[in-house]
Amino acid sequence: MGSSAQLIKAFDDAYEFLNPEIQKFRGDSLVQILSRKLSLQCQEQDQARLRVIGRAIELLASIHNAFAVSIPEAEIHDTERNEMNEDPVLEDTKRRRVIHGLLDLLSLEGIYPSLSQGVGIPLEQRVMSVLPTGVVAKQTEPTSEDKPRDEGLLHIIMDALRPIICDKRTGIQSIILGRILADVLCATAELAYQSQYLSQKKISTYTNLFQAVIDETPTPSLLPLLSSLIQKSSAPWFKTKISAQLSKIPLRKDGVFQTITFIASQFAPALGTNTETLSSGGPPITVEAIMQTSRLLSSVPQEVSADDYFCNIAPKLLSLLDGDEPDLRKTASYVIGSGILGKRAYGAPGAIGYKIFVKPIFDSLHGNMTNEVALWLRRFSLDDSALPEDALGDFEGEILIDEPKLFLSLTRLSALVLLHPNPGLLKRLVQPILLPLWGLKFYAKEHQKTLWHGKVFLLLQTFFSVSTGISKYEKLADNILWDGGCTWAYGPGQEGGISIRKRTDSRGSDLNPTRLMEKLNARVDGALELLSSDPQKEELAGDIFLHVGRQWLLGPSGEHNKKKQPERLQANDDLQSTLQKLVSAKFTEKLLNKFKDTLSRHPENILGIIEHLIHSEAALMERQKEEQLKIPSFRSLGNIVDDDDEPHARNTSEQSESLSAAFSLLSTILTSPDFSLSETLAPVIQRIKAQLDALLPNLPSPLVQPATTASMLLEITLTSSLSSEEKSETTTLRISGLELHRQALQHLSSPLPPIQAEGLSLLSRLITESSPVLDIPATLALLLSLITNTDSESSSNDEFIYLNVIKVIGVLASKHPRTVVKTLAERYADRSEQYNLDQRLIIGEALLRTVQELGSALVQDTARILGETMTTVAGRRGRKPSAKRVREELASNRPDKEPGESEEDALDREAANLMQQIDVAMDPEEPEDSARTAYSASIIDAWAAGAVSDLEPDDLRVRASAMSILASAFQTNIAGLGPSISSSSIDLALSTLNLERGPESAILRRAAVVLLLDLVKALDAAKEDGINLGFGFSYYTPPDFNNDPQRHPNEGIIGNIPVILRVLTFVESSEPDPIVRGHIRVLIESLEAWLEKSLLWGVRTREDIEEQPKFVLGDRLAGLDIHPRLERDEDGKPAMKGPRIEEIE
C-alpha cells in the first residue's frame, strides 16, 4: 500500500489495536477487551465504548490520510474513485482485513446498536465480521422508542466518516462503502429524518449526505441494498424513505435494465429447469418476474409527474423492445402493453402513454409526420439516449415517412401485440390502422417485399382470428382496393424496402380494366384467406355474403351512402357505383365458390337477401301503379285493353339481372340436399312465397319462367312433411356448441399466445356451460398436452398460457371431479416413467389447482384416489428403475468419485461437505468461486437420486410436492379425506422426519412438518365450526376402549399426541436445518394448544337443547380419546361401573 512510513505506521497501529490477547479475557465483551489496550478498565461501559469507537475512527482517518497523501498531487485530480479499478496497493489482503476489522467494529459496536427499532438489516443477515476469533457480536434488545438509541454516538461516527466519504482525494472511500454501505445509509437516514437533538443545519447536512451516497452508488449495488432494507418489521418512516428512493431507480441511466435484471434474479425458475434452454443474455425471466417488473415500472413516484416519469423511462423500454434479446423484448412488451397502456390514466387517447407508444405508430402508418413520430419513432440506447440516424434523402420532399421509421413502426406494433397474449390490446392497436395495414400488405406482395409482407400478414391474421364481429370484413369489402390516403401512397424505400410518399398519380391512371381485375381478384382472395383462418368463419361467411350480396343485388342503401366511400379509383359517382357493384359481385362469386357448403348450412342469410330484393321490387311496382292511377291521361286509356306485346312491368336490364340472380340462388338453396325447413326458416319461406306470387303477374317475360320454378319449389318445401318442429331447437344448440368447440381447437393449435389464450377462454366457456359436445377425457388429455409438451416452440414454454391451462383444468375438475383427479393422479405418479421432472411438477400444479377448485366436493372416491396417490408418491414406495439406470450411467462417468466408494457414500459425502460450505462466510468483494456452483449442481443431483437407502427411489422434489398437495387437500376438506388418509399422512410425516435425516432430504422434512401443521389446523377449524368429523387425536387409549363398539362407533383415532410430541422433540434436538426446527417448534406449540382447547371443549352442555347448559364433565373430552367410565342410572346420576378405589380395614 505504498512505501510511505506514515502509511506503514497507520496500519501497524490498527493491527495492534485489533489483536489483543483475547484468550485471557474470554467472556468479556468486545468493547471491554479492546478498552484494556486503552487503559479504560475503570470507566463505565458507555464511556469505554465511546473511547474504543473514537480510537477506531482515528485509525481509519489516519489510514485514509496516509494513503491519500501517498499519491502525487498531480494525479489526485485524474484519479477516479471506482471500486472496479482500484489501485493495486489496495489489493493487499492483510491490510484490507485490517480496514474491514475497523469498519466491522464501527458497524457492530457503534452504528447498529445506535439505530432505532425497525431500521437497518437484521444482524443475522449481515456480512460476517473479520474481527478476531472469539469475538461475537450480539444484537441489543429492541426498544419501543422511535428515536435512535444513542444519537450522540451515531453523530460522532458519521461526523467522522463524512469527511472521508466526501473527500475528493482517492483513499479508502470505496472500501468503506463496499463494506458498511447499508450502515452508512441507515445512520445518515436516522440523523437526517429522525433526529431529536441536532440543529437544522446539521440535519440538512445529513440529508444531503444521504442523497449523495445513494446517487453515487452504482445501480447494481443499490437495488439489492434498498430491497433488503425494506422488511416487515421496518419502521414506517424508514420504509417510506427507502421506498421513495427505490421507486426512483428506473429514472437512472441504467435503471430500467438493472431493475428488470434484479427482479429476474429474485424469481428463480422452477426446480429442474433445463439450463440449456435458458437465455444466454442474463437470468431467465419468469412470468412472475415480468408481472412484478410491470407493476414496479408502471408505478409513478410521488415526487415525479407522470409525464416526466414516462418520458424518462420510455426510451429505455423502447430500446429493450427494439433489441434482440427475446426475454427482454417480452418483458418490455408486457410493461408497455399491460402496465402502461392497460391503465386508463396512462393509456387512454391523449394520455402520456398513448402519445409515446401508440400515436407515433398510428401517425406513421397514416403518412403523418407529426412531432410524436419525429421524437419517439427512432432507436434508443439503454441509457435513454437516441442513437444516430443514417442520413437518407427525402427526394425533394416526396417521402413523408422514410423506410427506417415505417419498418420500426411495424416492428414495434408486432412486438406489442404478439409477444404476450392480450386480445384487448391487439384489437385496440390494429383496428384503427386496419386499412393502412391492408394496403401495405398488398403493396409488399405486389413488389415482392417478403419480409414486410410476412410481418403485416401475421398481424392481420392474428387480429382477424381473435377479434369478433363482421365489421372488420365489411370495412375490407367496402374498401377492397384501398392503396393509400388522398395525399399519400406507398412507394419504394431508400434502402430497398417501402416508404410512404406524396401521391402523384392521376385519378384515372389505375383504371386499366385488365390490371383492375387482377388487383381485384388478388385482394378478394386475400380477404377470403383471412376469413379461412378465422375460427368463426362458419357464422361470418353468411353475414359477409349478406353484406356484399345486398350491395350487389340491391345497390348501396341510404345507410351505405352516408358512410365514407373509398378515396381512390373514383372518377365520378357513376363510376364509383359501378365499381362498387363490380367488387360486390366478385366478392359474392368467390364466396359462393369457396364457402358453398357453409352457406348451404346457413341459408337464412341468403334467404334474407332474396326476401329483401323481392319485397323492394314489389313495393316499387306498387308505387308506380299508384302514381299512374293518380294522374289520368289519354295515354293511360290505351291500357284499358291489355296488349301482350307491350308488357306492363318495368323491363330494365339492371332489374332483370338482380331478380334473375335472386331466383337462381333461391332454387339452388331449395334443391340442396343439406337444406331442411326449420321453425325459424318457415316464416321466411312463407313471406317469400307470398311476395313472389304477388310479383309474378308484373314480371317481364324473361323472368317469368325462373320465378314460376322458384314459386313451385317454395310450395313443395312448405307442403312437404318435415319433422323440423322436433329437432330444430336441439340441432341449433348442438351446431352452436360444435362450432364453438371447433373454434377453440383451432385457436389452441395456433403457435401464437394471444390466439391460444382466446381458445382457452372458449373452452372454459364450454366447460362452464356443461356443453354435451365435450369429450371429458379427450379434453383433459388435450389440456395436459399443452403444458407437458417438451417441444421448445410449444405453449408449455409460455407461462401465460401454462397458467391459463391450469386454470381451465381447475374449471373442468369442478364439473367432473373424479375423472380429472384420477387422470391427474395417475400421470403425477408416473408409474410407467413417461414424464420428466418438469412435467410431473406441472401436473402437480394442476392437481393443486384442482384440489382448491373442488373445495367441499373433494369426497368419496375422488378424495380416496387423491389421498392414496399422494401418500404413495410422498412415501418411499415409488419405484423408478429407468431413472436409476440413467443416474448410474452418469455416475459411472463422473471423475470426482473416490476409489472404493459406493454411490450412497459419495452422495452423503458430497451433500454433507456442500452443506457445510454454504455456512462459511464469503467475502462479497471476492469473486465467486466454483464451490457454490458445484454445490447447486450436486444438491440437485442428490434430490434427483432420491433416498439413498432405497433401491429405485423417486425424486425428492416430487415427493415434497406430493406432501404439499396433500397438505392443501387437508386444508380444503379434511372431512372428505377421512380418518384413513389422515392417519396414513401422520405416519408418513413422522417417518420422514425420523428416518430421512440426510442434508439432501431437508426439503422433504420441511414439507412433512407443513403437512402436520395443516392437518392440525384443519382439525381445529372443523372443531371451531362445530363440525363432528368422527375422528381426531387421542391422549390415552384404554386397552378395552377400541374393542367397545357401543361407545361412539363413528369415532376414529388418527394419532396419539404423546407419541407425536415425543418424535417431534427428538427430531428438533438433532435437526440441522433451521427452517425445519422453526416449523417443528410451531407444531409442538400447536399440539399443546390443542390439548388445552380439548379440555375446554370437554366442558360442554347436554345434547338435549331444551335443557339449560351446565358446566359438568361430559361423557368424554372432545378432541381426545380420554373416556372416563361414567354411566348414568335411571335417575340420570353418574354411576361408577368401572373399577373403583375403596377403603378397607
From TrEMBL:
Residues covered by the RNA polymerase II assembly factor Rtp1 C-terminal domain: 742-856, 1056-1089
Q: Could you tell me the superkingdom of the organism this chain comes from? A: Eukaryota
Q: Which InterPro entries match?
A: ARM-type_fold, Rtp1_C1, Rtp1_C2, TANGO6/Rtp1
Record field: compositional bias (Basic and acidic residues): 885-900
The biological process GO terms on file are: protein secretion
- The region annotated as signal peptide is none
Residues of the region (Disordered) are: 872-906, 1124-1145
Q: Which Pfam families match?
A: RTP1_C1 (PF10363), RTP1_C2 (PF10304)
Family designation: Belongs to the Tango6 family.
This chain belongs to the protein called RNA polymerase II assembly factor Rtp1 C-terminal domain-containing protein
Organism of this sequence: Helicocarpus griseus UAMH5409
